Amino acid sequence: MMKKTLMMLFLGCSFLTLTHADASKLNDVLDIKTLRVCTTGDYKPYSFLKTDGTYEGIDISMAHSLAKSLGAEVEFVQTSWKTLMADFLDDKCDIAMGGISISLARQQQVYMSEPLGVDGKIPFVRCEDAKKYNTLSALNQKNVRAIEPAGGTNEAFVRKYMPNAKLELFHDNTTIFKNLVDKKADVMITDASEALYQKRYYPTLCAVNPEKPLEFFEKGYMLPKGDISWKLYVDQWLHLMQKNGEYNAISAHWLKADDVKHHDKKHAPTKHSH
Predict the structure, then answer these.
(1) Are residues 107 and 9 in the same domain?
(2) Are residues 209 and 226 in the same domain?
(3) Strands in 11-92 per DSSP E
(4) What is the pTM of this model?
(5) Residues whose CB falls within 8 Å of the CB of residue 129, separated by 6 or more in sequence, listed in order
(6) At 197, is the secondary structure helix, strand, or coil?
């Protein structure tokens, strides 16, 4: 009787394991030959929606590489930072890509891939104000006008660490920097990688202390919680991309050599990091 019970339990566990594996996004992509990728399309150099309706950027190239490894084509699903999590949990895509920060809040709802690289939040300001806004205490003042895209970790940072500052949520992440140039805002808290990239197009703006960010974090891709088979595949593909130099080659196409070095460097977190 005991042997029979144990055998039934073993068969039941085996059935559940096989059922879970069959339900994996990995099998879906392999069967359908389509990889659905949620991306905001407003975050250079990672993801940008062009006027002709096509996407470009570091993570756009990475999405095509992942799809190619699966013998599939990419179907990009437009989302926003404000609706990213809701769209992902609504099963609108198989993976979310595009400069996404790994955070504990996100990790509570989804799996995150192995980290792509280290980054950090820094002030992006007019160069004339770089020394003025180089500390968190200087930023957290009532007369400081911060501007951020709605949703995402930039807004969360300002609300947590700069509660005294005046926060404006801006609708267009691609033109938000002009507000700094035109002195309609004083600072934008953003990722060091984005600030270094955007400085090329806005030479009067400066990335403040990119080597010493106010908050440490890593970037990765969002994956469905509980789908171990899919996560293991994506992590292994990402590991190979990093080890064989393909990821660095893609990054170098978008970032200058110094910026790529900065992006891959292990920053030492400041006392405000977590």
Answers:
(1) yes
(2) no
(3) 34-39, 42-43, 47-49, 55-56, 73-78
(4) 0.78
(5) 186, 187
(6) helix
